[in-house]
Amino acid sequence: MLTYVVWQREAVAPVHAHEEEQILFLLDGEVEFELGAERRPMRSGDVVVIPPFVPHGGRGVAERSIVVEASSPPREFLLDLARAQR
User: Fold this and answer.
1) CA-based angle 48:54:60, to the nearest 5?
2) Which terminus, N or C, of the chain has the lesser number of Cβ atoms within 10 Å?
3) Whole-number Å distance between alpha carbons of 71 and 86
4) Quick check: bond before 73 cis, omega within 30?
């Protein structure tokens, strides 16, 4: 599953974990990202791989940041949201 996410400055994704593996690719901007016990800035072109069940979260730093996320298997939570939009 691929998702396209736009982060605004100070937008927060609270620390959470899920069973799906996830890869994030930051196309543009800057996000402070937390993975397990590590916190680091992500800038345009950076990639992070999130193994299943590892706590992670982030906060928008740039005025606008664009992230493409790949999840495997597809995240049921996001599929349910998409179904509800129909």
Assistant:
1) 50
2) C
3) 22
4) yes
List the helix and strand counts (H, then E) for the chain: 1, 8
Closest CA to 75 of 9, 24, 36: 24
Architecture of domain 2-85: Sandwich (2.60)
Structure tokens at 27: 């196309």
Provide the b/e sequence for 15-32 (b: ≥16 CB within 10 Å): eeebebebebbbeebbbe
Residue range 22-72, pLDDT digits in tens: 999 999 999 999 999 999 999 999 999 999 999 999 999 999 999 999 999
Specify whether the backbone of 53 is left (phi greater than 0), alpha (psi in -120 to 50) or beta.
Answer: left
Beta bridge partners of 30: 43
